[in-house]
Amino acid sequence: MAPNKGDNVVVSNMKLERMLSMKGGKGEASYANNSQAQALHAKSMLHLLEETLDGVQLNSAEIPFVVADLGCSCGNNTIYIVDVIIKHMIKRYEALDHHHPPPEFSAFFSDLPSNDFNTLFQLLPPLANDGGSMEECLAADTHRSYFAAGVPGSFYKRLFPAKSIDVFYSAFSLHWLSQVPECVLDKRSAAYNKGRVFIHGANEITAKAYKKQFQMDLAGFLTSRSKEMKRGGSMFLVCLGRTSLDPTDQGGAGLLFGTHFQDAWDDLIQEGLISSEKRDNFNIPVYAPSLQDFKEVVEAVGSFSINKLEIFKGGSPLVVNQPDDQAEVGRALANSCRSVAGVLVDAHLGDQLSEELFSRIESRATSQAKELLEKLQFFHIVASLSFA
Question: Where are the domains of the chain?
Answer without folding.
Answer: 26-247+282-316+377-387
